[in-house]
Automatic annotation (TrEMBL):
Full protein name: CGNR zinc finger domain-containing protein
Native species: Streptomyces mesophilus
Domain Zinc finger CGNR: residue ranges: 140-183
Domain of life: Bacteria
InterPro entries registered for this protein in UniProt: ABATE, ABATE_dom_sf, Znf_CGNR
A Pfam family it matches: zf-CGNR
Amino acid sequence: MLITHDTRCALDAVVDLVNTAPDEEGSDGVDGLSLIADLEDFVREHNISGVSALTDRDLSAVRGIRDRFCEVFAAKDAARAAALINELVASAGTTPQLTDHDDFDWHVHYFAPGASVADHLAADCGMALAFFVVAGEQERLRRCEAPDCRRAFVDLSRNRSRRYCDSRTCGNRLHVAAYRARRKEAAG
């Protein structure tokens, strides 16, 4: 599956957005988007273009679409994921446009000019996830399999074998625990 630069940026943004939700494991019940400053940081970190001064209304709207994206990652089948994505993209009033800003080659923005940050995220991130459903790859939208972590991630491995949000933290921690358990059992 070919993933263009702008699609990869949208995937990174949607994963990070989902992982700000307060009910996600690893968030300690803290909402990663509780303040406008948090949203400003998110916009800056993800280099989201065309965003003007953010307001409480923007913060509330982004939290709302975040909840919908959480549902996409929890969807049990492609039909449910597709329905959710269709709702997100339609609500954003998409207007696909070719653009070549910020030294990037031609790519497609799906949001209308002057769109709110919530509509921008709903359109671009929704379309990035739609490509996975269209390609029959919806199962790549995953949650970490570590028992104490349910963070979202997109499995971009060739053989669809990624199980953890981060192999250096969750994966390594579980492998070390399994190793210690085997050694303890062998020692008797």
